[in-house]
Amino acid sequence: MLVRPLSWLSLALSLVALVLETAVVDADADFESVRVRLMKSYSGKAGDPKEKYFHESVFHPHYDGRFADRQLNYDDKRSHLIALVQSYLFTMADIGAETWLMHGTLMGWWWNRKILPWDSDIDVQMTVETLSFLASYYNMSVHHHHLPHIPQGRDYLFEINPGFASEGPFDKLNMIDARWIDTETGLFIDITTVRPNNTARNLGIEGSLMCKDKHHYLEPDIFPLRDSVFEDTPVKIPFQYAWLLEEEYTKESLTRTEYERHQWNATTMQWEPMKSVRPVVMEDPPDTPGIPLFMKAFAPGINRPHAKAKKKKDKKRLLSSFVKPP
Question: pTM of whole model > 0.70?
């Protein structure tokens, strides 16, 4: 990764040298310097509580109004989301910061290693220790990437919530710990941190983890991370990816072939817009032609190595351990 001084000569030289996996960093970038086309902000900050750090746009919750004044159309949104996640994964790999897919983005990986076409943001996780390191050296940095479908390049802002290290799980206004933001379109990646759940560990639940967004895990759910590919880019995913998806979205979500006005095409391995199609659920996932690529690829890993009964008991005990402070 190249560190760029703020001069036109350095900028020109850096742009010439950029290739697919190269990123350029500006230190301590202010909002005016990264805003590329808007004369005013469309942030919802004025209507948000003052304690809230990240502010979504006034027109859609998955856009940053400092950099966007409208939603993108279906095709443009997808292409810019691809660039967004590729630039993020390239940058974190270059820095050496371990991160992995989670939530709806992991569901997209499950089906065909791509972003779900109806999605409008990206969800990833990292450990609180990793984000602490990044906060020391990369907060408010701007990274310039050249990608095949954006030959002129694009600037991405890496912004960290200063309250990311807070131990309290009840701050509903600041569940997002950091964001990777496209300064041209306002699209962003939500980054949440995984940290030890000391309350649950003190109750005897070994390896208990938590996020401020109230998701709870055990260490074997996530670690060791698996290596894979997402949108043609190397990526890491949680070890027990299928179980995590099933718990968050139900077992049916892993085989349901109709969702959000899209239908799964088992021949093209793509989610395609539809007019009106009856919902279909695959009867026998492991043997059905067209089943998502990684259900077969990692079939031995679908069943958890530790007993589900014990897990459910631990989860119940874990969730009941939280009592909101007065």
Answer: yes
